[in-house]
Amino acid sequence: MTTHQRYLIAGNWKMNGVLEEARQFIRALADNPAPEHVEVALMPPFTLLHPLAEKLSSRGVRLGAQNVYYEPKGAFTGSISPLMLRDAGCRYVILGHSERRDIMGENNSSIRHKLDAAWEAGLEPILCIGEHLEERKSGATNKILADQLAILEKTDAERQLTIAYEPVWAIGTGVTPTIDEVRDTHAFIHQRLMTLGSDRRVLYGGSVNAGNAAELLGLPGVDGALVGGASLQAESFSAIIAAAASCANN
Ligand code: PGA
Questions:
Q1: Do residues 203 and 126 lie in contact, with contact meaning Cβ atoms separated by under 8 Å?
Q2: pLDDT tens-digit profile of 179-212?
Q3: What is the helix (H) or strand (E) element at residue 227, kind and residue range?
Q4: With a 6 A CB cut-off, is 110 part of the ligand 1 pocket?
């Protein structure tokens, strides 16, 4: 259950989707428009940002990117700057996703640079944090999360920021933490955020689907969901949005 204004349901398409698929997805999504009290955002690959921007905004869906580089421009072959994302119509940018940390070698230091650059350009970062399975098993979860959140030290509490708690072992596996684990971990994250200067929306991510969304979103301290696999089909994504709507009404 969110204590913030509105649930955010964000779809992270990762490296999936070409233009025709995206058009069909948006047409299907339009059959089930999101209610006012649920904010919906889509993070397609970079190549689809410009072509989708207007279609999404006219349907009340916000646009986001999955990553960004921290320099404003210059000789950084293959990189995209925060200003370019703004220019393409983005409001959000995902930072620190575990796939970028684990596969692309990102660390807290580069993520902090990206955070500052995203804010500078007027983007709202969605900062992903989460522990690996062995860390969860050894009782190190809170320490790992506290370390990842420590990059927020000496940041401006007024800046827009959303956190996504994504246990790495729950991503794309069909396995989710227990209800108690999600509730306790979200409580811990909210507490840390307050210590760091300002509470934030905290999304849950990791194998969210049409079947488990209502239960997860109904938990205290869960302010929305970052959805991977289940955001690729309009039907399952719409069902998750509907689950958020019904939780908001309760
Ligand atoms: P998943 O991915 O929903 O496919 O588990 C979530 C994410 O990586 O953001």
A1: yes
A2: 999 999 999 999 999 999 999 999 999 999 999 9
A3: strand 224-227
A4: no
**Which ligand 1 atom lies nearest to the CA of residue 170?**
5
Q: Of ligand 1's atoms, which has the minimum distance to the CA of residue 172?
A: 5
Q: Does the pTM of the predicted model rise above 0.90?
A: yes
E runs forming strands in 32-184: 38-43, 61-65, 92-95, 124-129, 162-165
The finding on whether 167 has its CB within 6 A of some atom of ligand 1 is no
**What is the residue whose two structure tokens read 């259950």?**
1
Going from the Cα of 81 to the center of ligand 1, the distance in angstroms, rounded, reads: 24
Burial class (CB in 10 A: 0-12, 13-18, 19+), 142: middle
The token pair that represents 112 in the structure block: 């902090």
Q: Pull the structure tokens for residue 152.
A: 């927020």
